[in-house]
Amino acid sequence: MQVAIVGATGETGRSIVDGLLKAESSFEITAIIRPSSLAKPAVQNLKARGVRVVSVDLQGPRAELVEILKPIDVVISAIHYQSLDEEITLSSAAKIVGVKRYVPCFWATVAPRGVMLLRDRKEEILDHIHRLRLPYTVIDVGWWYEITLPAIPSGRFDYALVAPQNNLLDSGDVPSALTDVRDVGVYVAKIISDPQTLNKKVFAFTETRTQNEILALVEKLTSERPEVTKIPAAELESKLAEARKAGTGINRDLGQYEYWNSWGIRGDNTPENARYLGYLIAEDLYPGVKGRSLETFVQEILDGKGAKVYSE
Predict the structure, then answer these.
(1) Is residue 155 part of a domain?
(2) In terms of CB atoms within 10 Å, which end of the chain has fewer, N or C?
(3) Pairing of strands 207-209, 176-179
(4) What is the 3-state secondary structure (H, E, C) of 129-149?
(5) pLDDT tens per residue across span 24-65
(6) Which three-class secondary structure state does DSSP give residue 300?
(7) Domain holding 55: CATH number?
(8) Which keywords appear in this protein's UniProt record, sorted alphabetically (predicted)?
(9) Cβ atoms of 205 and 284 closer than 8 Å
(10) Which residues are catalytic, by number?
(11) Number of domains, the chain
(12) CB 282 within 8 A of CB 190
């Protein structure tokens, strides 16, 4: 199967490449790279692993992109959120050449429309895909382990945390689905090979935990109690209203508050809600496929084997 990936050097994209290269099925991978990024070490690493690298500007002439996509069976977008609009061009080119499956850039928590601006923009792109009648599969993966853990007093987690989660949202008892970003590609390899996921949304996650359960797990493994700042639902609602009133579009503060509200207060990011919204659940489809546990992830960090996401 010929698979083209946009965003192959990002955190999600790298996981997808890893999963496809290690899969039982045979995938020939093409990484679509911006011309300005060709010399980057991460791109050279892709080449060294046998990934075909092609350069094209998604905002350039459509004919160049169409030519690249002609032999491709599946297009996967893991594009940066600030470049989501380029998916209009990418999906349109995929339709022209008759790509068999297009996987748009979702890769996050489950939520309905009207809760998060970023999610709504992704849904608008899916609307465009629907208008094209382009075969597709949406894949959401929940909240990453890598941005789930709190810092602990000793600082033993610090080297591996890009965004310590020491804010306890309201009661801390709302469940949320979690996945190690390194396991995303394992799920993707199964999903894009499966006819029953065509023109469907799939929720692929590994565990469901509340914040209080995460704090208890950390305390159990470290014998340290993380210090937390409690944020009542009303306070978060106020922060969210102020961020939206600023009217600066999708920015870091607004995105953070909207995610917290969705998975931490509303409880959108659960398999039960995903089923309600029409998703297929990966663990139902592939009961033998399971990513690493949160406990294993925490132990890796304690053993000095953790790595900070977005380090590049």
Answers:
(1) no
(2) C
(3) antiparallel
(4) HHHHCCCEEEEECCEEHHHCC
(5) 889 999 999 999 899 999 999 999 999 999 999 998 889 999
(6) helix
(7) 3.40.50.720
(8) NADP, Oxidoreductase
(9) no
(10) 122
(11) 1
(12) yes
